[in-house]
Amino acid sequence: MFAESVQLSKSDSETELIGAEILSDCLKNFGSNVVITLEGPLGAGKTTLVRGMLRSLGYEGSVKSPTFTLLESYVLSDGSLKVFHFDLYRILDELELEFIGLEEILDSDGIKLFEWPDKASNFLMLPRIRIVLDIPKESVGEVQRLGYERSISASFLEEPQN
To answer: Can you list the residues of the chain whose pLDDT is less than 50?
Structure first.
């Protein structure tokens, strides 16, 4: 393992800032062709972290969870970079991933973000960055919306390409 960091967030805006920081480190160390996995329970802030990543790239549009669409694609306004945001929560069989062209996307240039990566374990042998978000068990539900602390750990799983 190259490096690991753990940060605490007490708000969505802090989570977005952490997402921006993680992506900046990623781009600096690995370039723009990278696979990042996002793990954590429902409501832990995975899509919020992705929103922070996209905002740091200058993306100003809506950023929503692809829970029902499986994939949201984003292209920066200058066309310089593509971001593919997958939410595999509803995948029942990995064969479904072939229908959305996962292999072609993995082979293409761009940042690939995967929520619930365990649903695609045969496709995602080793991500470059693994992010785990965790929230205290008592934070689920109404208390979660009123303010809680989540921990965000990012593990860079291979050496930078310098």
So the answer is: 1, 139-140, 142-146, 160, 162
State pLDDT tens for residues 54-89: 999 999 888 988 887 889 999 887 778 899 999 999
Q: List, in sequence order, every beta strand (DSSP E) within the chain.
A: 3-9, 34-39, 71-75, 82-87, 111-115, 129-134, 150-156
Cβ atoms of 64 and 51 closer than 8 Å: no
Structure tokens at 62: 């809506």
Half-sphere exposure of 105 (CA within 13 A, CB side): 22
* Residue showing tokens 């996962």: 102
Cα distances (angstroms) measured from residue 121 to each of 117, 129, 135, 150:
7, 15, 24, 26
In the chain, where the domains are located: 3-156
What predicted TM-score, i.e. pTM, was given to this entire model?
0.82
Rounded Cα–Cα distance for residues 140 and 160 (Å): 37
Q: What is the CATH number of domain 3-156?
A: 3.40.50.300
For 43, 80, 131, the CA distances from 137, given in Å and listed in that order, are: 11, 40, 19
* Bridge-based pairing state of the strands 129-134 and 34-39: parallel
Residue entry with tokens 């970079």: 81
